[in-house]
Structure formats: structure tokens, C-alpha cells
Amino acid sequence: MTAAMLVTLAVLHFWEAKPPAQWTDAEVQELLTNSPWAQSAVDARGAAVAVYLASARPMREAELELVRRQPPVDDPDAQEYGDFLRENQGKQIVLAVALPDRKALDDPAEVKRIEEECVLKVGGKKYQMTGHFPPSVTDPYLRLVFPRAATAADKNLVFELYVPGVPSPYRRAEFRIQDLTYRGAIEM
């Protein structure tokens, strides 16, 4: 290898430098928690809840790696979400939200607030959530579905969230679209 090739490989993130099957467990967790597609949604006091763009290709690949590495478990709810994601690839943006208290979704009023108060802001426009998938036996994340209204020309995806089961349930997460590049393409 030439020196230039070694420098290029050193600069590439692991998700660009090797295929998903070669990612370590720690790398998969890093991608899902600390990457351009993952961050903490914070409230006004700085309290955080983990979120990630579950519809983005690197995140889908990381989730598939997690499933592949575990013993098979029958989880119809996770299967329904997987089917939705495959059928709607490129049409929706799905935000995975760590839900500290899953029982909060047992309250219909809380679910209604999620549906009414979770929005995506892109280019000065607001988009309501179009659906959601609750956590399941194998998936601890609440999945919020939004229309894919952003393009590579937009600057940011801003999510304003209502997260039940936490003090101060309002959260905000912002993703810079130019940072969401994976293998030469913007991935949301």
C-alpha cells in the first residue's frame, strides 16, 4: 500500500472502511450511539435521551448485524417494523428513540401526545409524524415515522419530540444533513 492509501484508510470511519459483517460489537454500538446518525436528544436542562436515524442505511445495517449475532427470537412486532422499513425504503424517515419507561405507552393520552407533538422541521417547514412502532420484545426503541421531506440541499433535520415517561418530556435533536454521508450518498 502506498502512504496515501494508508492515510486515507486511517481517516475513514470503520463504517466506511469495512463491511458490516466485519464490524466489532463495540463498533456497532458506537454507530448506534455516537455517529453522524445517532445522538442525544436533550431537554432545556440538558437531560438526554438517545436517538438515531433508523431509516439510514448504516443504521439499518448495524441493526441487522445485531440481529444476526443473536439467537433467533420470534418477535412479530419487530418483523412488522422490518417489513415496513423494507417496503418504504427511501420514502420515510424513521427516528428510533430510547424510551426509559415503556409502560408510558400504555396510557392512550401519552400516545396521543406523541402523535400530536412529535414533529420534523426541514427548510422552515414542519412535518407531523405519520406513524410509530412501539418497542417490542427484541427492540427497546420507540420508532417514530416521518415523511421524507428533506433533500441533500437542505441543511438540517430538526426533531422536536415528546418523550413520555421522563421528567421534562420535551426533547430536541438536530442532524446536519451534510454529515449523513455513507459510501458516497446522503443517508437519512
Give an overview in words.
- With 188 residues, the chain is of the alpha+beta class.
- It has one domain (3-186).
- The protein is built from six helices and eleven strands.
- The protein has helices at residues 3-11, 14-17, 25-33, 57-69, 76-87, 108-117, and strands at residues 38-42, 48-53, 92-98, 119-122, 125-128, 131-133, 141-147, 156-162, 170-176, 181-182, 185-186.
- The strands form three sheets. Strands 1-2-3-7-6 form a five-stranded antiparallel β-sheet.
- Helix 3 packs antiparallel against helix 4 (57-69).
- The two termini are 33 Å apart.
Ordered list of secondary-structure elements with their pairings:
Elements: H1 3-11, H2 14-17, H3 25-33, E1 38-42, E2 48-53, H4 57-69, H5 76-87, E3 92-98, H6 108-117, E4 119-122, E5 125-128, E6 131-133, E7 141-147, E8 156-162, E9 170-176, E10 181-182, E11 185-186
Antiparallel strand pairs: 1-2, 2-3, 3-7, 4-5, 4-8, 6-7, 8-9, 10-11
Tell me how many strands there are. 11
The DSSP helix count reads 6
Strand content: 25-35%
Q: H/E element string?
A: HHHEEHHEHEEEEEEEE
Separation of termini?
33 Å
Rg (CA only) = 17 Å
Low-confidence stretches: 3-9
User: What is the helix fraction of residues, given as a range?
Assistant: 25-40%
Largest sheet: 5 strands, antiparallel
Which term fits the overall shape? Answer: globular
The total domain count is 1
Summarize, please.
With 188 residues, the chain is an alpha+beta fold. The chain contains 6 helices and 11 strands.
Give the key terms:
globular, 11 strands, five-stranded antiparallel sheet, 6 helices, disordered N terminus, 188 residues, alpha+beta, four-stranded antiparallel sheet, single chain
